[in-house]
């Protein structure tokens, strides 16, 4: 229960801080991601809206961020713990992401986000079961933004319902990400 409350508080604060600083409804970038973990894979497309904020600006760097709206497809390869039994599920997610980056938003960056996800079915793969279709998704990532707007990165992604209901075994994924800033 404490994890759930902490996650909800973080999400609420992030939403309040970031939401008032978007200057436009136009999409700033789009991304494609591939991930693997727990004998399952994910493919995800997303759109991002940059925040017009530069917190703790110092020495040519700052903390900024963006909203991330995603649509993903998961392929479970050991559905209900049966080897070779497959099941797909679809996920829609919304995540505020904080990013430590250069002031010009080019070069190396590190990021972290925690958001909400709604899955079309309950995840049940390789001994990991979710008891709710509503999940929190958090990630830590790093990457590089090139001068032409190409953004290549990696993420460690975790899904869990934050203790809302049991079982709550969670699942982890290693994710490769490519994005393009318009």
Automatic annotation (TrEMBL):
<keyword id="KW-0472">Membrane</keyword>
<keyword id="KW-0998">Cell outer membrane</keyword>
<dbReference type="Pfam" id="PF09411">
    <property type="entry name" value="PagL"/>
</dbReference>
<feature type="signal peptide">
    <location>
        <begin position="1"/>
        <end position="26"/>
    </location>
</feature>
<dbReference type="InterPro" id="IPR011250">
    <property type="entry name" value="OMP/PagP_B-barrel"/>
</dbReference>
<comment type="function">
    <text>Has lipid A 3-O-deacylase activity. Hydrolyzes the ester bond at the 3 position of lipid A, a bioactive component of lipopolysaccharide (LPS), thereby releasing the primary fatty acyl moiety.</text>
</comment>
<keyword id="KW-0732">Signal</keyword>
<keyword id="KW-0378">Hydrolase</keyword>
<dbReference type="GO" id="GO:0016787">
    <property type="term" value="F:hydrolase activity"/>
</dbReference>
<comment type="similarity">
    <text>Belongs to the PagL family.</text>
</comment>
<comment type="subunit">
    <text>Homodimer.</text>
</comment>
<dbReference type="InterPro" id="IPR018550">
    <property type="entry name" value="Lipid-A_deacylase-rel"/>
</dbReference>
<protein>
    <recommendedName>
        <fullName>Lipid A deacylase</fullName>
        <ecNumber>3.1.1.77</ecNumber>
    </recommendedName>
</protein>
């Amino acid at each position: 229960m404490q994890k759930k409350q902490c996650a909800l508080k973080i999400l609420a604060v992030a939403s309040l801080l970031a939401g008032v600083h978007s200057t436009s409804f136009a999409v700033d970038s789009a991304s494609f991601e591939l991930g693997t973990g727990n004998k399952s894979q994910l493919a995800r497309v997303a759109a991002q809206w940059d925040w017009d904020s530069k917190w703790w600006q110092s020495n040519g760097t700052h903390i900024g961020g963006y909203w991330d709206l995603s649509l993903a497809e998961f392929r479970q390869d050991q559905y209900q713990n049966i080897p070779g039994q497959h099941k797909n599920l679809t996920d829609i997610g919304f995540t505020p992401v904080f990013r430590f980056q250069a002031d010009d938003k080019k070069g190396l960056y590190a990021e972290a986000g925690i958001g909400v996800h709604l899955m079309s079915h309950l995840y049940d793969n390789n001994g990991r079961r979710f008891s709710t279709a509503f999940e929190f998704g958090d990630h830590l990532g790093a990457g590089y933004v090139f001068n032409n707007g190409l953004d290549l990165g990696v993420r460690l992604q975790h899904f869990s319902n934050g203790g809302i209901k049991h079982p709550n075994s969670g699942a982890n994924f290693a994710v490769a990400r490519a994005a393009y800033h318009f």
